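User: Just a sanity check before I run the rest of the batch. Below are the structure tokens for the first item. I only need the designed sequence back.
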């Protein structure tokens, strides 16, 4: 397997500046992210909507399969709605769609239009954890509704998930569809925006994981992080054109 390298931190002081902010040094021969746009549609049996599950804590939301909708053009729309009966002790229902199958090293990509609403978060990630009696592992791409000009990259290894890096996109991700993704290698993770590499870390999860995409609001414990949730459900939807996975050769 081709090796990728992280340069010493001293070299990062010589950063190339552009309208997107500092660039992280990535080998010039890094291939663009590869995609297969037909991976997501309403007929794929290996994906399903989360329903009845409750995420307590920072998310504090219940998942409802009715908040996962496919439009006529097969665009996936995830919604946030009120939870009038306070099911699970939460105020809102969120939308989450995920694979039944487990995946490993490869190129992961999503085409989406983020939502610009305070207190709202949308994400695309791989995850394995407590439900499978394993320590949490996965790779995340996160969008905070209070700042859609940036994206957060994160990963979890053996239960340690505090590796967030905020990347300045140089555009507003809520205005039109863009492609975001990552290449999960055995010895590193490379993150991509519009198929081009933008960030690299020399760590990598080892456990196979499911593919997730979700849309939710935070609770008041996260005030100061992505701002206080709205007092009403969101009127906006997270729209996703396609999701892709291609196994590394």
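Assistant: Here's the designed sequence for the first item:
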């Amino acid at each position: 397997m081709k090796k990728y390298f992280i340069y010493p931190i001293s070299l990062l002081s010589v950063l190339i500046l552009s309208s997107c902010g500092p660039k992280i040094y990535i080998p010039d021969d890094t291939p663009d992210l590869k995609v297969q746009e037909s991976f997501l549609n309403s007929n794929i049996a290996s994906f399903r909507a989360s329903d009845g599950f409750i995420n307590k804590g920072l998310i504090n939301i219940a998942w409802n399969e009715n908040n996962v909708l496919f439009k006529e053009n097969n665009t996936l729309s995830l919604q946030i709605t009120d939870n009038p009966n306070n099911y699970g002790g939460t105020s809102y229902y969120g939308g989450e769609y995920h694979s039944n199958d487990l995946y490993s090293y490869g190129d992961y990509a999503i085409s989406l239009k983020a939502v610009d609403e305070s207190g709202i978060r949308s994400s695309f990630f791989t995850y394995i954890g407590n439900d499978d009696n394993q320590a949490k592992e996965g790779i995340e791409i996160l969008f905070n509704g209070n700042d859609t000009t940036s994206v957060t990259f994160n990963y979890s290894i053996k239960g340690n998930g505090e590796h967030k890096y905020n990347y300045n996109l140089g555009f507003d991700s809520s205005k039109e569809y863009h492609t975001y993704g990552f290449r999960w290698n055995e010895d590193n993770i490379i993150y991509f925006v519009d198929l081009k590499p933008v960030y690299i870390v020399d760590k990598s999860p080892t456990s196979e994981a499911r593919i997730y995409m979700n849309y939710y609001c935070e609770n008041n414990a996260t005030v100061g992080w992505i701002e206080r949730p709205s007092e009403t459900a969101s009127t906006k939807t997270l729209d996703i054109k396609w999701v892709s996975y291609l196994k590394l050769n």
